[in-house]
């Protein structure tokens, strides 16, 4: 049975309908926002799919009564139920091939996508007036990879250099943000002090700017006293692509 709720009419009215299955797990939600005059209406229908353990595997949405559903998020899990990959904003349906070879004339409007490479032969051409697009993509706007240690602590979100290492920590080159957490492992360039009791001893991260260029790789090195109380953190950074040591730029942040 659908469950409906909302707020009393004001300048903006909310109406939400939730459709659960027989165990109470939401299958569909429908949210509608209407002004009192009724001149502006926005509706969003969200559809959920689950695996055999009732973990969300995908969320798709339909807007303003459209019959076309767009996948906004898809999730993959490891053997113990941890999220290891989040795919955000589907831009291509079906399986995206790893490589694409283009070797003829492409008139009109054409779009090609591959996960690793797109090769253009000497016979490739696009006539004047035609529209041509080629993308390196997994089929989503962004893929977020997550890795954990044996304690279940988060080790990486993509990685702190936004590089594709074949899936060890990251599986694509289109990430906007990445971070690495250091506990018992020492980064030779950051020189954090390893800890074997689960304390966070260092963190590194990188993002892209509005032009799509990678920024500096940034880091914090954390310090503790004999009672495991956090006493200070030191900020450092290095240019993108650098393999040299981190440079301290802001001194000590005493807590």
Structure description:
The protein is mostly beta strands and 255 residues long. The protein has three domains: 1-77; 79-88 and 145-255, no CATH class; 97-136, no CATH class. Helix content is 0%, strand content 50%. The strands form three sheets. Strands 1-2-3-4-5-6-7-12-13-14-15-16-17-18 form a 14-stranded antiparallel β-sheet, with no helix packed on it. The chain is globular and about 60 Å long.
Q: Provide a count of the helices.
A: 0
Give the termini distance in whole angstroms: 53 Å
SS elements, strand count: 18
* Estimated radius of gyration: 24 Å
Question: What is the secondary structure topology, with strand pairs?
Answer:
Elements: E1 3-6, E2 12-20, E3 26-35, E4 41-50, E5 56-63, E6 70-77, E7 83-90, E8 99-102, E9 109-114, E10 117-120, E11 131-136, E12 140-148, E13 154-157, E14 177-182, E15 202-207, E16 217-224, E17 230-238, E18 247-254
Which descriptors would you attach to this protein?
single chain; 255 residues; mainly beta; 3 domains; 14-stranded antiparallel sheet; two-stranded parallel sheet; 50% strand; globular
């Amino acid at each position: 049975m659908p469950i409906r709720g909302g707020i009393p009419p004001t300048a903006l009215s909310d109406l939400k309908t939730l459709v659960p299955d027989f165990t109470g797990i939401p299958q569909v939600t429908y949210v509608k926002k209407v002004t009192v005059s009724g001149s502006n209406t926005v509706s969003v229908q969200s559809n959920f799919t689950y695996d055999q353990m009732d973990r969300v595997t995908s969320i798709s949405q339909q807007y303003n009564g459209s019959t076309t559903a767009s996948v906004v998020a898809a999730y993959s899990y490891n053997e113990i139920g941890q999220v290891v990959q989040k795919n955000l904003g589907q831009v291509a349906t079906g399986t995206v091939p790893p490589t694409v070879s283009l070797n003829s004339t492409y008139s009109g409007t054409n779009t090609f996508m591959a996960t690793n490479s797109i090769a253009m032969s000497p016979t490739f051409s696009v006539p004047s007036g035609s529209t041509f697009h080629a993308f390196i993509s997994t089929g989503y706007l962004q893929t977020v990879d997550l890795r954990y240690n044996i304690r279940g602590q988060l080790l990486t979100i993509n990685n702190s250099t936004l590089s594709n290492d074949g899936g060890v920590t990251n599986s694509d080159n289109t990430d906007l943000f990445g971070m690495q957490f250091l506990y018992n492992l020492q980064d030779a360039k950051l020189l954090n002090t390893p800890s074997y009791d689960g304390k966070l001893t260092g963190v590194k991260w990188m993002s892209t700017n509005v032009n799509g260029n990678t920024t500096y790789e940034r880091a914090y090195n954390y310090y503790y006293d004999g009672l495991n109380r956090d006493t200070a953190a030191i900020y450092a950074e290095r240019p993108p692509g650098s393999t040299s040591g981190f440079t301290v730029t802001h001194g000590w942040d005493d807590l």
